[in-house]
Amino acid sequence: MHSKKQSPVKYYVGIDVGSASVRAALVDGFGTVVAHADQPIQIWEPQPDHYEQSSADIWAACCSVTKKVVCGVGASQIRGVGFDATCSLVVVDKQFQPLAVNCEGQNCRNVIMWMDHRAVSQVERINATQHRVLSYVGGVMSVEMQPPKLLWIKENLQESCWEKAGYFFDLPDFLSWKATGVTARSLCTVVCKWTYTSDGGWDDSFWEVIGLEDLVKDKYEKIGNHVLSPGESVGKGLTPEAAKDLGLPEGIAVAASLIDAHAGGLGVIGADVKGHNLPCENQPITSRVAMICGTSSCHMGISETPIFVPGVWGPYFSAMVPGLWLNEGGQSATGQLIDHVVRGHVAFPELQSKAAASAHSIYTYLNSHLDLIKKSLPVGFLTVDLHVWPDFHGNRSPLTDLTLKGMVVGLTLSRGLDELALIYLATIQAIALGTRHILETMQAAGHHINTLFLCGGLSKNPLFVQMHADITGKPVVLSKEVESVLVGAAILGACASGDFASIQEAMAKMGKIGRVVQPNHEHKRFYDKKYEVFLKLVEHQREYRSIMNSF
């Protein structure tokens, strides 16, 4: 008997640019991550609410991690590359050289990060126009979107940046340009962050009424007049220069990119759930929400027809899954908030020391410590007298109020590790309560959601996952590959290569379920009461601010 010769395994490279690091993965056609690497990138904070990065630093990190994951793999086996990134704003001049987005004139700092809130005045004026395009961002534009940032640049850096600028890129589009030399934009970025509509394109009247008529005059060349669907092949693939930089073969397919949260959604939301006894089995994909939780969190819900949800971004057509409408809820600080609360506590040095001695991460140690102090109570019940409102960086959804502040109610004079563990738990619960607030708003508008699909760094924390299941009352699905965002990016590369007929086919083949976490329904009454308190907290904050504003 003669065995058939096996064809070589096909691989796809997914490259993800997060807030603080760049990661790459080599992924096979079944969605298995076979190699992974990451590298930190620099963030500058020259003044409060100003966050900047360097596109050169980001690209160098992309090249470094990609070379690591493809090392030793045959060039002919690598079929495509997909990028995703945060929705940060990259500015370059007419020769594609970086331009400073700061008053110091530091050209290397040419990226305004997604979480930068410098354009508060500008976004207030944009929202005051009540222009029709705002109905596609939940009725109120976020300071984290690109139009207010562009207006800030024009008003504050007119000569040094605005007049010299040749192109304004969303970071995912900058990366596909860097790889291919083609300035085409992804439908995902321009629809979700720039007010482009999939049926009507750019609306001249919007840009004119907000004072950015310059962009209309050059037929949108600076912000994109060639738009591709995510996963569509860009240009002729990798240029010789980019191929050398990345350690990949020249000409391999490069996909139109995605925002990082959308790539995470792509990596998990289409997985086959048969045999897991989930309520979404035999239900349309629209019964699922993908929650991508890292520095911040995004809640991605899809629908067959447009659903307008107050305070939730969208509906965006084909911005994540082709042919379906997307609504995107979000929390501006989640992982960042947990770090802030834990590391700022007076007992943090003790925690750090004890975690190191036990060879555990600080969060694994905190979870174990909570199990020690809970006695006969369920862990979550330890916060019966401790409540947190989590909007330390404003509220993205569903209240769309960037002026809201964080709150903690129930503090004592205690300063030890027990108290640190409790405030950590209350913070995680507050984030989960915020997710419940977003989901209930989406459901009230017409979504029918019964299952959560989690990915991102925080999905590795079992306490975070269980609290989301218990507080929302919905089962939580975790993907087999914890790096779902990278799988999502690789899915783009797989589609661009032509190896899959559609994004949907690649999602079903490459997205895999790992573990399912069920809610404990016996705890429902406790969390219903916590949710009542949660909603009261923002009422009280608005009430006391109203009192002080009358001073």
TrEMBL record:
InterPro entries: ATPase_NBD (IPR043129), Carb_kinase_FGGY (IPR000577), FGGY_C (IPR018485), FGGY_N (IPR018484), FGGY_RbtK-like (IPR006003). GO terms for molecular function: D-ribulokinase activity. Gene3D superfamilies: 1.20.58.2240, 3.30.420.40. It comes from the Eukaryota. Residues 290-496 form the Carbohydrate kinase FGGY C-terminal domain. Keywords: Kinase, Transferase. The keyword Flavoprotein does not apply. GO terms for cellular component: cytoplasm. One of its GO terms (biological process) is pentose metabolic process. SUPFAM superfamilies: Actin-like ATPase domain. Residues 11-267 form the Carbohydrate kinase FGGY N-terminal domain. Belongs to the FGGY kinase family. NCBIfam families: 5C_CHO_kinase. This is FGGY carbohydrate kinase domain-containing protein. It comes from Herpetotheres cachinnans. The gene is Fggy.
